Every structure is written in structure tokens, then in C-alpha cells.
Amino acid sequence: MLKLEIVTPERRVLDAEVESVTIPTASGEAGILPHHAPLISAVKPGVLSYSTKGANEKVVLSAGFVEVNADTVSVLVDTAETPGEIDADAARSSRESAEKALVSAGTVPVEEAEAAREQIDHANARVLTAAGR
Questions:
Q1: Rounded to two decimals, what is the model's pTM?
Q2: What is the Cα–Cα distance from 62 to 44, expressed in whole angstroms?
């Protein structure tokens, strides 16, 4: 078993014993099982999934960091939402705003364009998770 902790600046979103974790990292999706090698990585906006007692659960993450050490997976992100916490209409609106910002990326600095891409990734994850996918 793994101990999974998901923490934001405002709250502890999850503290549970789980069988496995899949998390979007800067170098791609990482699957974590018990006895995983120590790891520290940047987290990309997207969906963290975990299995516990045969059920798969999801949490939508913004950017942050993950540390794996001694069968503990610690996720520190700006925001994290379970499917029941997601406002689907707000997620769609956020995605549309980020897409508009990206379209105008030719006139904005590269950093702003990258921020818009991250917003789109986060909004897409929220929309899909809210829809049960």
C-alpha cells in the first residue's frame, strides 16, 4: 500500500492508503506502485488517478510538485478538485478564456502563452472529469 497525500495552500485534499497512483509529471505520466524508487518531479496540470479497494478515483490537479519516498506519495499543488467539487460550467468558461488567450499568443510574451497552455490543460482535465471521463 501507498500513502497518498494531496495538499494545496488552502487545505489537505486527500490523505489515504491506496494501491497505485498515476500522475501527470513534466516528463510524462508516471505510474507509482508500492516500493517505487524515490522521485521528485514537477506536476503538470491534469488528472491524478488512484486505485483503492478495486475502485479507481480521480483528482484534477493544477501545476505543482510530487515527491515519492518510502511508500509515501506527497503531492503539493496550487489547486486540486475531486469530481464532485468541479463546476462544469466554470471549467468550460475557463477553457474558453485560456483558448482565446492562446490565440492571441502571437502578441504576448512566451511566458504568457505557456501559462495559457497550462490553463487549457487544467480546464480540459476539469471538464472531462466533471463529465465522468
A1: 0.80
A2: 7
